[in-house]
Amino acid sequence: MAVQTSFDPQAFRAALGTFTTGVTIITTQAEDGSPVGITANSFNSVSLNPPMVLWSLAKNARSLPVFSNGRHWNVHVLSTEQETLSGRFAKQGEDKFAEVELDTGISEAPLLQDCTARFQCRTAFQYEGGDHVIFVGEVLAFDHSDRAPLAFQSGQYALATRKPRSELRLATTPPPPECSYTEDLLGYLLGRGHYQMLHALRRLLKNQQLDEHAFFILSVLCIRDNLTIEELNTFVEYTGHVVSLASMRFLERQKLVAREVNGEQVRYVLTADGREASLQELALAKAVEEDISAKLGAGDAQALKVLLKRLIAASDPGLPDLWAAR
Ligand SMILES: Cc1cc2nc3c(=O)[nH]c(=O)nc-3n(C[C@H](O)[C@H](O)[C@H](O)COP(=O)(O)O)c2cc1C
Questions:
Q1: In the chain, where does the domain assigned CATH 1.10.10.10 lie?
Q2: Ligand 1 atom 28, closest CA
Q3: I need a surface site. Which of 67, 144, 227, 324 has the fewest CB within 10 A?
């Protein structure tokens, strides 16, 4: 790693940006009673006893005089659901508080709702900090929720995923000497997770006298009805299953799909029973997801989805997108 001693501002910024932070909105009230607020990630804890926190404000911020003259300000640690709000409070000239619901706090400083944590503060000290002013506040009240916190890293919003306190066996077990196929192989992890999540669905399919093959066909028709076998196959291809005339005849006999003949072309649609069966499967899949999200925690479940979507994009050999606009 090359050590930089000259201060190229961009490189310095980039180096500082590697320090991953949460994102806050800090609010106060101007003398004329108008609400003022900015997005800030310079927030940090200072002291537990007395309880104190700090943050720094750029000297060219329009809100500087208000924060400098005001006595009270509130720090809102934003949740992953509040990224849009963060963007709004980071822009000058917007009506930042338009349609924002507020709680009543212990001071006149606006108190935002639905945050991960909130600290209601009174200015204790202000320090010169180069092109910023450092505000140190005494915390007069605080509250927090279990909403996942929004993170910020290298100029981009991020999601924080917690590592387990003790290492999972998966990552540490050495592979058997004759085989380099470890428990840590991404394909194995994905497959194992997928098949375990399908456990309950397989039982439902058995009760419905169906199998995974039928499940894929019904799910595709539930999203895009009225398809030929060839079209069905383009959407089912990623599963490795091949839809045949025999598959469709079976579902027709079960009265789950019906054919519509137009000259030479045969298209398949879901019957009311087919839609019902598919919706039951979807409801179960959602219940399984809810159960797993509760075990992982909402923030980690959200982070997992982001990574899986990136994985799907990164591994896509060019298959059609079932959800793309027609
Ligand atoms: C994630 C993020 C973190 C930020 N952190 C700070 C900060 O700590 N201090 C600061 O002065 N500006 C920070 N900014 C920029 C201000 O939010 C932005 O300049 C804002 O428009 C200032 O508002 P004002 O000029 O209306 O006072 C941050 C912006 C973003 C997107």
A1: 198-315
A2: 40
A3: 324
